[in-house]
Amino acid sequence: MSQETLKDHLPLSPDHNHLRLDALKKLFPDLFSNEGQLNTDELMKLVDPMLVSETERYDFRWYGKTKSKRDAFTPSRAALIYDPVRSVNPDKAGGNMIVEGENLEVLKLLTSAYRERINCIYIDPPYNTGKDFVYSDNYAEDRKPYWEQTGVTEAGVKVDTNTESDGRFHSNWLSMMHSRLLIARYLLKRSGVILISIDDHEYHNLKRLLDEVFGPENYIATLVWEKGRKNDAKFVSVGHEYLVLYGKDFSSLKEADVKWREAKPGAADIQREYARLRAELGSDDRAIEAKLAEFYERLPKGHPAKKHSRYGRVDSRGVWRDDNMSWPGGGGPTYDVPHPVTGKPCAVPPGGWRYSTPEKMQEMIRAGCVEFRTDHTEPPIRKTYLIRREDDTIDDTIEEAEPEEDDIAIQVAGSYFYRSALPASNELADLLGGRIFENPKDHEVIARWVRYVSQDSSAIILDFFAGSGTTAQAVIELNKLDGGSRKFILVQLPEQTAKDSPAFKAGYKYVSDIAIERTKRVVQKLKTEAEGLPPITPQRQFTDSLGFKVYTLAKSAFPRVEFIPDPEKTETENIELLKQYIREKEATFHMTWSRDNIFDEVLLKNGFTLDYILTRRPEFTKNEVFIAKDAYKESLICLDQAIAPETVDHFKKEKEQFFICLELALDTTLKWNLKHHLGDKLKAI
């Protein structure tokens, strides 16, 4: 059994410095002394065997870098408190949540349960254009607690002055980003991707910072987003921004032979019309084809779907067009393909058959991907589908060559794209009843890239600079489009809006209020659109399952987090002082608990995602014991003030169960018995 430490008695988020040292010790035990301490001399030999002191070297440093790393890996003493009033259909949230709070502290808390479970991170951080920004990492400052700065006091959030004439201009911004990116990397899956919006002011520094945090080998691309010309510019209209893409471990994508692809513009419109016609006309393919031709005719000039009007045929697998059966470039194989009616070999295309063997040809014929002509005098037609279904295992490409780009309505994305900033501003103004947020990101653009880089319809998407809540709308609309079950986690500082701003006058005291209200109105809008539809329709089923929870960052419910060790005393002495502090401060604090909130804090810090399910276990009659389950783990939990002997007896038989309880609820005998039965499966807090 490991030696008892102060951290064993404190409800904190993970200590990542400790975890990193543990990982290093497992890999390289020779770098540590017999007492378990890191031998820095041995580490230096590993880094530089010749022990040559290099004073002139390439390095990326700024004032505050060391502190920003220390801040990132210092455990959080805070908690997330559920806000039922501002939540929307919380029983249907399914993991969707918006957290109001300082994002570094929130990210630390999330690492307990969401480490390596996030598929995609999108952030739109402050661009450092010479204005003030409010991410000052002052959550734990003694002189003015964070929760007082975010509404309790009149002054509101402390703002760091960050003018360009200040020597800290870049350093402050880099430190702010550095600590958050370090923790964000922990949250991403190995195959996960981060996308960051940025402009010219800090692009070069952001790129170097990302190289350091994620590694230059994990750089994927920098996308250029052209948003429109500014005619009032004096010299050059700079109307573009960037989207910088990095992978957590890009090699994992290569190993899995992942290829990112998307439907060409307009393809989704055609697919939606096909689905509508299929629902209306059933299995009558010819009638659907006639209506589809009318659809193409009605489209306005310039509509992207009009370019795909060649896709005018349909079958049970979708919309398709005629394609030739010839091997690209000629020189393909020749073999007999019997016509199903005449029985005679069909004419071979001039370039030879597209499929390399008769067996492959027969496979495609059986799959319904080949259509024969009236007789054998002409080669059959190869069907090229507008959109290949996710469950389609048929590969209609040839082994030796990929189809030409124009052959299919699926494409690889380019690094440059145009999307005016005006539609996003107009849509948000319509949704909220006025222009209360400047320069919102376009939810359709974010949805496009989230879908493109994650390609998982059940992905978890994180945005810890949520702003007006664009990412939440992007995820909701994306799920509506393709029937996915993606989840969003948004984090936004309760940054105060200016008292003379349209937002403040409209009742939005904080930027986080805007994100929450926007997401609420998106849900309401989709529900209104689905009203009157039968319950069995996909749109109605989708809107009936929409919801999200709101959480706020707050003090821990455990007074012990305020305990300050005495530097003059030993670790053992401080542990005894902490235990005494707990006995004195927490003997009756359970009386003020909100049960939901305390369960959230305890379970989150013990690695449960916040969409856990809590169920009362009836076999326990002396205590209120629950089984907590999420998608990854389960545990029994009891937060009663005293644990009965009968409850402890249960674990004589059920020794494989995990059990979480309050240490104050156990006397010495009960604790010894539980430890004897459960060992490391007992978590007494």
**Number of beta strands:** 21
Q: If you average the pLDDT, what whole number results?
A: 83
Determine the CATH topology of the largest domain: Rossmann fold
Q: Main beta sheet, described?
A: 10 strands, mixed
Approximate helicity band? 25-40%
Beginning-to-end CA distance, first to last residue = 17 Å
Spans of at least 5 consecutive residues whose pLDDT stays below 50 are 51-57, 139-167, 390-407
* CATH architecture classification of the largest domain: 3-Layer(aba) Sandwich
Fraction in beta strands: 15-25%
Q: Which strands sit side by side, in order, in the main sheet? A: 1-16-2-15-14-3-4-6-5-13
> What is the CATH homology-level superfamily of the largest domain?
Vaccinia Virus protein VP39
The CATH class of the largest domain turns out to be: Alpha Beta
What structural class do you assign from the helix and strand content?
alpha/beta
Radius of gyration: 30 Å
Structurally, the number of domains stands at: 4
Question: What's the number of helices?
Answer: 21
**What is the 3D form?**
globular
